[in-house]
Amino acid sequence: MAHSGPMTDWRKARLPVIAFLAPATIIYTLFMIYPLVDSIRLSFYATPSGGEAAFVGLDNYRTVLADPDWAATFWNSFWNNMKFFAVHMLIQNPIGIALAGILSLPRLRFRNSYRTMMIMPTMLSVVIVGFIWQLILSPVWGVGADLLDIIGLKSLFGPWLGKEGSALITLSFISVWQWVGIPLMLIYAALLAIPDDLVDAAVVDGATHFEVFWHIKLPLVFPTVAMVSILTFVGNFNAFDLIYAVKGALAGPNFATDIMGTLFYRTFFGYQLQLGNPHLGATV
């Protein structure tokens, strides 16, 4: 009986933990883990025309990665996705860090107004964003050429969304414009959590605002920057909506904006004369 007290207390303390974690764990398992595991299982099967699903091992992976009819499309979408991610990683996140640093300046006026304007695009529908930027960049009725003409750069304007060499980078910049508020707010929140004593001590020692940010604040928010980088990677490889809204399922021109999301859509659900293949879709 002497040992039953601590054991009973431990079990009682564990019950609230289980009660709080169980709902989230069950929901995450049902809607995330199970579909992922089932997709992996599905990728090892194939369904002949009019037949039943049969186990084919790694044949679907060989088809996607090496078959002449599939490999070029897969690797094109993969490298396009890597370029899409690189633009967000090298442009969006540094801009978010810089803007968060500016917003954290102690004497900045209208801080709340700036913060609201920067976060507003993230609240817009991707379809609306795509439609607006199509209008702005249209060579026929867009205002892009007029805006560049104001600063003497009208000669640089072109049908950027219609050229193979510029369509993907243009869509990447549109996506950066919409989502830069996410890393901005995460890093801004981390900057606000830094103790004022550290900043005050550096200012007393003669450090400038930039030196305080570069040598004190930025190293302290590196864990948040790392988390933002992971979210950027995951988000970009799940990207689909902007490409689909602006360029459609074929991700034109000539698949120049095709990424893994649009390839998955065409493969899994089919498009025009291409029948859907859930097994190859799961492989993708």
Radius of gyration: 25 Å
The biggest sheet amounts to: 2 strands, antiparallel
Query: How many angstroms separate the termini?
Result: 59 Å
Structural class: mainly alpha
In CATH, what is the homologous superfamily of one domain?
Answer: MetI-like
Overall mean confidence score, pLDDT: 87
Under the CATH scheme, which class of one domain? Mainly Alpha
**Separate helix tally:** 14
Low-confidence stretches: none
Say what the CATH topology of one domain is. MetI-like fold
Account of the protein in words:
The protein is an all-alpha fold. It has a domain at 77-258: MetI-like (MetI-like fold, Orthogonal Bundle). The chain is 68% helix and 1% strand. It is built from 14 helices and two strands. It has helices at 4-42, 59-66, 71-103, 111-119, 126-137, 144-150, 167-179, 181-192, 196-204, 209-220, 222-237, 241-247, 260-269, 278-283, and strands spanning 45-46, 54-55. A two-stranded antiparallel sheet has the order 1-2. Helix 2 (59-66) packs across helix 3 (71-103). It comes from Thalassospira lucentensis. Keywords: Cell membrane, Membrane, Transmembrane, Transmembrane helix, Transport. It is found in: Cell membrane.
